[in-house]
Amino acid sequence: MYYSIPEEDVNAFGNRVACFQILPSIIESNRKKMIEPLVDLEIGIEILEPFLKRHDFDLKGFEDFKGSGRHFTFAKFKNERKEFILGYHFSVGQIVYKFDSSTIGHDFYIDKLGFAGKRKFQDIQTEDKILPFKHILSDFDLLVEDFFKGECIRLQEFSRLKENIIAEYDKKAREGYNRQFDELRIQQARLEFKNKNYQKSLDIYLSIDYKSIMNDLDGKIIEFSKNHIFKN
């Protein structure tokens, strides 16, 4: 005995098969989207690193934060009291220069030095993800005298100006997702505390701009960490 299968059932079955055939390619595409930004960052670091090494800046590592659909990676280079920080979120987002507690963003620093017309990095999205790193490398030449070879006299001066609204990362970060980033940093600080890395936990808490998003638990963690560090 033969049974005929309704046409709508045949179509539905065909659609299911098509979905299962397409699904692996979707998963692979999503996986590549997660990997490619980090590959671009690594290539970009390779472009900047020779210059930084010539001026005694060493890569101290990466800070990686994930949450709420966002993925932040910060590369940090240091030369004693000087620090260069590059933030990446699918493209170059933050460029920061530090000397002790003085902090300033890339654009503001160069513009205040009088090189606004020579600055190559424009902080805009481009199809070429490597091009911004080449522009940053070119801009480094404008900062050699004060930052890379000097004592950061102008950096310290500019960081005190009212127009410099930089706290730790540049204006784009503060306006776009700095609050969310602070929430991720709090999670990281709690994790470091749980792992008994009290100094690192405290350092992260002290770098948070939006103190209002911390709760009583965070206050107790900070107090405990301070007491533990003081006793040791």
Mean pLDDT: 77
Please report which band the strand proportion falls in: under 5%, 5-15%, 15-25%, 25-35%, 35-45% or over 45%: 15-25%
- Strand order of the biggest β-sheet: 1-2-3-4-5
H-E string: HEEEEEHHHHHHHH
Q: How many structural domains?
A: 2
Shape: globular
Low-confidence stretches: 1-35, 166-171
Give the helix/strand class.
alpha+beta
The biggest sheet amounts to: 5 strands, antiparallel
Q: DSSP helix count?
A: 9
The percent of residues in helical segments reads 40-55%
How many whole angstroms does the radius of gyration measure? 24 Å
First-to-last CA distance:
86 Å
Instruction: Find the count of extended strands (DSSP E, 2+ residues).
Output: 5
Describe the overall structure.
This protein has 232 residues and is of the alpha+beta class. The protein folds into 2 domains: 34-168, no CATH class; 177-232, no CATH class. It contains 9 helices and 5 strands; from the N terminus they run αβββββαααααααα. It has helices spanning 7-54, 106-112, 131-140, 144-148, 153-159, 171-176, 178-194, 198-206, 216-231; strands at 58-67, 70-79, 82-88, 92-99, 102-105. Strands 1-2-3-4-5 form a 5-stranded antiparallel β-sheet, with helices on both faces. A hairpin with a 2-residue loop joins β2 and β3 (82-88). α1 (7-54) packs parallel to α3, α7 runs antiparallel to α8 and α8 (198-206) crosses α9. The termini are far apart. 26% of the residues are buried.
Give me the secondary-structure topology.
Layout: H1 7-54, E1 58-67, E2 70-79, E3 82-88, E4 92-99, E5 102-105, H2 106-112, H3 131-140, H4 144-148, H5 153-159, H6 171-176, H7 178-194, H8 198-206, H9 216-231
